[in-house]
Amino acid sequence: MIEVNHLTKRYGNHCAVDDISFTVEDGCIYGLLGPNGAGKSTTMNVITGYLSATSGTVKIDGHDIMEEPREAKSCIGYLPEQPPLYTDMTVREYLMFVAELKGVRPKAARLESIERASGRTGLESMQNRLIRNLSKGYRQRVGVAATLLGDPKIIILDEPTVGLDPAQMIEIRSLIHDLGKTHTVILSSHILSEVQAVCDQVLIIAHGKLVAQGTPEELAGRLAAQGVIAATALGGRDAVVAAAESVDGLTNVQITAEKGDEVSFTASSAAGSDLRAALSKALADAGCPLLSLSSQTMSLEDVFLQLTENTDMAGTEGSGKEAPTDSTEDTASTAEEAVPSSAPESPAEAEQPQAQAPDADAPAEAADTSADAAADGKEGE
Ligand SMILES: Nc1ncnc2c1ncn2[C@@H]1O[C@H](COP(=O)(O)OP(=O)(O)OP(=O)(O)O)[C@@H](O)[C@H]1O
């Protein structure tokens, strides 16, 4: 339903999205996962026609987002990271306003659409409440309800749980899960556990590149299938690394610590292979006696960190990745902290249009961002 082909987006000299291609099939929940600054919002803004691509194409249901924007946008309900809500309106007024902007006609259809959207998002009893008096969780529901107006097939949510407390996060995740039964949903998140819990398919983005894609189980399986050896040997750094790298099947040798002549390192091994004996022999042959050796399994969190760190800017090599932690550890609770904010701010930032409308004070922008803009240019009733 959505085909993204060789999508690149530059802000001045800064490449925020670098030649990304992927396909989104109908009826699944997709998660764009990546650290802050990875390029998730930019990707979403291009998919929704908010920003133009520097190169590459995006097709929604066969319609090119640049060439047939109205047809393409009519398939999408988009909730930006900063929901464009008018906090002086009641929930009902706001939803009516958005429905009108989206060209939902006649009035009876608008009312029906609002009722359905309110029902899906649990807002029935909040209709006459001013948005500014709602909790952040309920405001987010209003934003999600707005995306549903006009019955788009695809719902795109940029960091929908950011700033929510744990209970609100759980509610919004459950709402997204429910939406996935009737819609294709794409959400972005920097929280590994969230994407794992909610999404059918995960796209991991780091530094503007798509570094991995699969179901959470596939990714976890791929990672779990990868063994990690952690070892300490006596000898020079270069000799130890060369010996480790000479072992067939051992890859990604990373120094984790150096103390005097003791060099600690980790290395990855292919699925199912136990390379400890081969490593021990290679080190002995190189005159680097082995002091300790252990074999570990990578957790999904370790894999995610490795994938996102490995695409880090050139020159960070040898920064000393910590040895992976015990894979049996529950990673969910630590995943959020573990994902670093890694991309630098672009110097070109100021030059570029802001993709997301501010909270309440910019009606025109808010209207535009509030969704599909499907009805852009359509005359009123
Ligand atoms: N309007 C802009 N002008 C210049 N640079 C920008 C602009 N918007 C984003 N960037 C830069 O592009 C990169 C990708 O930003 P983007 O917002 O897409 O990342 P993200 O993964 O959504 O991160 P976050 O979760 O922090 O929003 C970052 O380095 C960011 O500083």
Describe the structure.
This protein is of the alpha/beta class. Helix content is 33%, strand content 25%. It is built from 13 helices and 14 strands. The protein has helices at residues 40-47, 69-73, 91-101, 107-121, 136-148, 166-179, 192-198, 216-224, 237-245, 276-285, 300-310, 332-338, 363-369; strands spanning 2-11, 14-24, 29-33, 55-60, 63-64, 76-79, 154-158, 184-189, 201-206, 209-214, 227-234, 250-259, 262-269, 290-297. The strands form three sheets. The protein has a six-stranded mixed beta sheet, sandwiched between helices. Strand 7 (154-158), helix 6 (166-179) and strand 8 form a beta-alpha-beta unit. Helix 4 (107-121) crosses helix 5, helix 5 (136-148) packs parallel to helix 6 and helix 9 (237-245) packs across helix 10 (276-285). The radius of gyration is 24 Å and the shape is elongated. Mean pLDDT is 80; it is low at 312-381. Adenosine-5'-triphosphate binds next to strand 2 and helix 1.
SSE layout:
Layout: E1 2-11, E2 14-24, E3 29-33, H1 40-47, E4 55-60, E5 63-64, H2 69-73, E6 76-79, H3 91-101, H4 107-121, H5 136-148, E7 154-158, H6 166-179, E8 184-189, H7 192-198, E9 201-206, E10 209-214, H8 216-224, E11 227-234, H9 237-245, E12 250-259, E13 262-269, H10 276-285, E14 290-297, H11 300-310, H12 332-338, H13 363-369
Parallel strand pairs: 3-8, 3-9, 6-7, 7-8
Antiparallel strand pairs: 1-2, 1-4, 4-5, 9-10, 11-13, 11-14, 12-13
Helix pairs in contact: 3-4, 4-5, 5-6, 9-10
